[in-house]
Recover the amino acids of this structure.
């Protein structure tokens, strides 16, 4: 394995920038991280680099090098934003002071997605030394800083810039191997609809003895609503019409799933859970990849400290995500969710807007994106499988994943582009969790794989 230690040092610098897209206090860090990406692109021999800010969002970095329009064009995508770091005290080393332990880089964003984005940038730098001043492949790059926040800027910009993004296919390195020794290429991702419910009642937090029983508790109203969303016995989402547009698992899915060495015991172990749970009638692999689901992501209500405080809270809120599958429409699901929330609350709650109602229920969408399902037998995916096999020494399996990359759907559906998920993460990289890591061997081999794929395209 070739070691690219200089590139490793550069990646560590990139990881020191705390580019958390969802927290407003990191605005300057987002600009710094975008600048870092733009510089790395220039160092790879691409002079045309633009930064776009859409509606005050985080910068998009777009770059291209077209040496001959007759050559094939590849669009490379990655995101430089990262998830928040909490709970901070569970990190063994600080999230933005990358530390190398046991052959892995520990830092927020190491695997998701700075390390993987860098495999593209450094592969290009290697290739540019090889190719000289006549590149056999046209390269376009788009890097965003809002993937973890729903991707509003790139969605809008892409809709207005189809021409600029046009390419033969897109490469996204932002996914993970199914198992340590089993490279995998995703051919489907779920979409997401992220909602917030807020119940407000009295004008301030009240003494629960002095006022309890005399005013409705927003916490109880919220609990009733949340309990109505999913059946814990059958794992079914209870929102009317939720499953209307779900496409059944296909023969191709079944055939490919049969080759996927998914191990339930390993899954439980990685989750640190006691046992599996989910929608009856489906395997765990199906439940987490091809079936839609609903999860409460957070509940806020009343006193959260240790010990007791006798308080009747003035508000209660919950954040709920629904992972949707291709063909389910995110706007339709968001609407059905809100209709259900309003319908399920007790009558006096559902007429919340009327003066005199005991609590007010508000339901809003935070972000939403459709899922994507690619043709697993496309020539680009086949080429990527060959390259991965060469570099990692095992034939990649074709899998569906349950997470979301909103722009992938836009590339595929709106721009009609084939997409290749050339992912180098490991299943235990702890994305979004404390102690996220990216393995150095995956980083080095990732650079090789991207190089090989682009060289192959150049030979056509
Ligand atoms: N890189 C992940 C998606 C991913 C992870 C795909 C593992 C396949 C395997 C991405 O950064 C992510 O976390 N997406 C968010 C999107 C959301 C915030 C709009 C997700 O799925 O929660
Ligand atoms: Mn990612
Ligand atoms: Mn992520």
């Amino acid at each position: 394995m070739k070691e690219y230690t200089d590139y490793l040092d550069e990646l560590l610098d990139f990881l020191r920038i705390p580019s958390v897209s969802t927290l407003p206090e990191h605005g300057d860090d987002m600009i710094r991280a975008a600048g870092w990406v733009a510089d790395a692109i220039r160092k790879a021999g691409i002079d045309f680099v633009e930064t776009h800010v859409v509606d005050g969002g985080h910068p998009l970095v777009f770059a291209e090098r077209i040496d001959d329009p007759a050559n094939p064009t590849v669009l490379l995508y990655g995101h430089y934003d990262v998830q928040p770091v909490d709970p901070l005290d569970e990190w063994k080393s600080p999230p933005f002071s990358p530390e190398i332990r046991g052959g892995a880089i520990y830092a927020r964003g190491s695997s998701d997605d700075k390390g993987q984005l860098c495999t593209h940038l450094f592969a290009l730098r290697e290739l540019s030394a090889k190719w000289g001043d006549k590149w056999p492949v046209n390269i376009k790059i788009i890097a965003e800083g809002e993937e973890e926040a729903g991707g509003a800027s790139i969605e809008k910009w892409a809709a207005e810039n189809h021409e600029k993004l046009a390419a033969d296919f897109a490469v996204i390195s932002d996914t993970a191997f199914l198992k340590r020794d089993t490279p995998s290429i995703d051919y489907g991702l779920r979409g997401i609809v992220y909602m917030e419910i807020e119940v407000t009642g009295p004008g301030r937090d009240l003494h629960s003895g002095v006022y309890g029983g005399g005013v409705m508790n927003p916490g109880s109203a919220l609990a009733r609503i949340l309990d109505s969303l999913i059946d814990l016995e059958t794992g079914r989402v209870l929102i009317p019409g939720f499953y209307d547009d779900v496409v059944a698992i296909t023969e191709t899915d079944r055939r490919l799933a049969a080759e996927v060495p998914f191990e339930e015991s390993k899954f439980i172990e990685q989750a640190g859970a006691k046992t599996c749970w989910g929608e009856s009638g489906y395997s765990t692999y199906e439940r987490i990849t091809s079936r839609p689901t609903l999860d409460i992501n957070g509940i806020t209500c009343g006193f959260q400290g240790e010990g007791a405080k006798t308080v009747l809270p003035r508000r209660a809120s919950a954040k709920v995500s629904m992972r949707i599958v291709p063909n389910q429409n995110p706007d339709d699901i968001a609407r059905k969710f809100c209709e259900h929330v309003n319908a399920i609350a007790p009558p006096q709650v559902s007429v919340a807007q009327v003066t005199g109602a005991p609590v007010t229920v508000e339901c809003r969408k935070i972000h939403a994106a459709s899922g994507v399902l690619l043709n697993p037998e496309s020539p680009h995916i086949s080429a990527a499988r060959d390259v991965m096999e060469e570099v990692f020494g095992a034939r990649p399996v074709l899998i569906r994943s349950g997470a979301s990359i909103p722009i992938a759907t836009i590339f595929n559906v709106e721009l009609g582009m084939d997409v290749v998920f050339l992912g180098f993460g490991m299943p235990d990289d702890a994305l979004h969790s404390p102690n996220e890591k990216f393995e150095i061997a995956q980083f080095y081999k990732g650079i090789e794989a991207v190089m090989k794929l682009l060289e192959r395209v150049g030979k056509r």
